[in-house]
Amino acid sequence: MHHRCPDPIRSLLLALLVALAFVAPSVAQERVDLSPRDLAVVRINIIDLLANEPRLPLPIKQRRDVLRTYYEAQNGDLLWLNSARAAVMVSRLVNATDDGLNPDDYPGQQLASLMAAAGETDKRSLAIIELYFSAAFLEYASDLKVGRFLPNKIDPNFFLAPRSIDEAAALAGVSKVADVETVLHAWEPQNAEYQALRKALDDYHALAVLGGWGKVPLGDTLKPGMTDPRIPALRARLAVTDGAAVAAPGEPGFYDEALIEAVKRFQARHGLDVDGVVGPASLVAMNVSIEDRIESIDFAMERWRWMPDDLGRQYIIVNIAGFELRRIADGEIKEKMAVVVGKPYSRTPVFSDAIRYLEFNPYWNVPAGLAAKEELPKLQSNPAAVAAAGFEAVRGKEVYDVRQVDWAQVTPSRFPFQLRQKPGENNALGRVKFMFPNSHDVYLHDTPSRSLFGRAERAFSHGCIRLSRPLELADQVLIAGGVADWSDARIDSVVASQKNTVVNLKTPLPIHITYLTAWVEADGVHFSSDIYGHDEKLLAALDGKSLAW
Amino acid sequence: MHRRQLAAAALVFLASTSIGHAGTLDDVRARGELICGVSEGLGGFSEQDGAGTWQGFDVDFCRAVAAAVLGDASKVQYVPLSAEARFAALTDGKIDLLSRNSTWTMTRDLTLGLDFPGTSYFDGQGFMVPALFGAISPLELDGASICVVSGTTTEANAAAYFKKAGLTVSFLSFEERAEARAAYADARCDAYTADRSALAAERAELPTPDEHVILKDVISKEPLGPVVRDDDPQWTALVRWTLFGLIDAEEQKLDAASMAGAGADEARAMGAPAVAALGLSDDWLVQVLAGVGNYGEIFERNLGEQTPMQLSRGVNALWTQGGILYAPPMP
Predict the structure, then answer these.
(1) What is the distance between the alpha carbons of residues A301 and B22, in angstroms, rounded to a whole number?
(2) What predicted TM-score, i.e. pTM, was given to this entire model?
């Protein structure tokens, strides 16, 4: 099948591959300097290879069109040969951990070896070396900007559109700026959250080099005022991340005021009850290794790469794993509130959309399955109680009092009504819902079950997101959505009327539902547990297990 | 042609009517030697060293069975077999045991008159690419030409994988592994696909092994293990419990060195039920472990990080250590 005629490109590639083995990267030269005439010859070779060579190495072949467009253009200067950029690029790839990426995934050492061998090679080989660098740069820029994985291939619960980078713009960007670090920085997600995580990652890597933190021995709950032989270990653990004094004044085993403050800081950063009491949950969180914490930061950075570039000037962002909603405007956090999200087996999906309208005093349309399974027995045994809870039955345009229906004639499989709960005190959706119509039937709403917001872990819903301060958010969203004539007082009177009222936003407000187990706040990096196991799936994907199929 | 088919049918008939005719164990004892089918040369699994001595993971399993039956791991006659010839050699009675990186499949188990006593190595198909490519996953191989050995399910597996992923690749297929490897080493294709254990062997043979990476993704299940004829339940049981004995011994932390001390008593107790049931000597498992070591020792010696194969235990770690290696309890 394959021809055996002399094959110049093969011997050339082979020579380059062999060169890798014999050059130690430590002696790699910083740059290769060529005369203008040599440069011109290399460029002619590049153009010829891209135009005419059928069998280029895969990373170059895959980007043939964009490379050809760049190098054939009048100002398509060489980017790596004759430039300090190559050494910087190599160092960035070798230090990919700084970006939360894995250096083993990039050919940093190999490119360094090629650079080192470049002095003694012919012009056609130099052309290949230049192209390898460009291909590696494009790969890295893409991984930085849009992530290594297609979100939905990792996890079917992520509904984020696959993205790609503008490779032509990336190459043009390199040619305009001498400093590759500046160029690559522009290909990182620019939002403050990603940048803060990247900085936190540096800090954690530095801590890891110093040995991270030791474990606090398991045992009875440690309480303020106690004297216990495990207190020095607790102190040492919190000295690393939460500013506890390593040595206590006076008795080393005494749980003093300063240590209480450090414990509370730690608890606040880990989604625990902030009570200064070190029970099993706090101990487990303290004993998670620094390597695992670094992994959480890596994963959060990868998930930010999956997010849209432009989140909006104003937007709502929900972090499912952190049980929190934020409203952001002009880069500032304007509002934070606790939310309840879906249970682990009815997970709130991850996606981006835009809030289009609010509905005050909403009806709750009972999902068909729930109506047939849970409500029908109650309707058959005690319809009066169901009516008292505010339910009515709708068929076509007719609305029926549930006490007037002969429920004995109705079966789960023949249930010809839409059951709904009228607005009012008991309504499952509370006083307002925020709609961003989507295929997942997910929205934000108020709830009569207020007590759940007092819990540290809040995964209780069927997938919708319940708000702790819905009317405040309604006020803000209406303003952000360009609906100006809705004062607090007007909202209050509409709610009091118990009349179903829809208010359309003039400008839809973007909403991003995310899943992040690490994020940065003023008091340091916050970590949450992996309630849905999404981190585990990402870890499996990094280990070559594609779970989506 | 027609007559030959009839003859083949008659052979199968004879084989299937001889169920219960236990004999392999007696034959091996009478002969004083186990005849074991191995590959014609696959790094780490079965190959001859410079002096002509057979060694490897599959070879060590032959030696373990010889130690169990004859009390001497060296009493093995090796028969190198091609992929095509291996099963016929077994059903024709030319060998007692086939220990040759063979995948346990339903078709082979049910239609060839064979028994698969267990899985000794959980393998799977993977990809090797030059490190220079910086590829993380096979999903980055769009447009690649891929070297493959023909006559196995390898090419079809890979084709199905890429079709499902919506990627276009082309295959360059070769009859012999050496040819496929040479083509890959020559940069005539971008990637090489085979079972990952075979890729590890191939990589070790390349001029610059460190410049090539085996991607982590596994795209097929390939449970490899010993194979016997299905007419001799006693022999099947012996091969099966020799394999389980190697695995259970690792779990119990019984290794070759411990057989010189207190470990021997423990191994004797573990293997006790087989003494009467299979007519083995009471120290059969001691002989196995003293002769070849436990599963972990066999793995590390032939395939481990310190060998040219550089394979980590991965899924072949004990179930207690994150792998799927799980042998029923002994005694």
Answers:
(1) 63
(2) 0.84
Q: What is the ipTM of this complex?
A: 0.76
Task: Give the separation between CA A110 and CA A132, rounded to whole angstroms.
Answer: 10
Beta-carbon neighbour count of residue A63 at 10 Å?
20
Q: Is the pLDDT of residue B190 over 90?
A: yes
- Which residues from chain B sit within 8 angstroms of residue A14, using beta carbons? 186-187
The domain spans of chain B are 2-122+222-321, 125-214
Strands (E), A322-439: 324-329, 332-342, 351-360, 364-365, 391-395, 398-401, 418-421, 432-435
Q: Where in chain A is the domain with CATH 2.40.440.10?
A: 311-362+423-516
Are A543 and B187 an interchain contact pair (Cβ–Cβ within 8 Å)? no
CATH topology of domain A311-362+423-516: L,D-transpeptidase catalytic domain-like (2.40.440)
φ, ψ of residue A534 in degrees (nearest 5) = -70, -35
How many other CB atoms sit within 10 Å of the CB of residue A106? 24
Measure CB to CB from residue A58 to each of B173, B190, B210 and give the nearest one. Answer: B190
Q: What is the pLDDT of residue A23?
A: 53
Burial class (CB in 10 A: 0-12, 13-18, 19+), A525: buried
> What CATH superfamily classification does B2-122+222-321 receive?
Periplasmic binding protein-like II (3.40.190.10)
Query: Sign of the CA dihedral A337, A338, A339, A341?
Result: positive
Domain boundaries B125-214, corresponding CATH code: 3.40.190.10
| Structural contact between residues B289 and B267, judged by C-beta atoms closer than 8 angstroms | yes
**Measured between CB atoms, does B175 come within 8 Å of chain A?**
no
A25 touches chain B (CB under 8 A): no
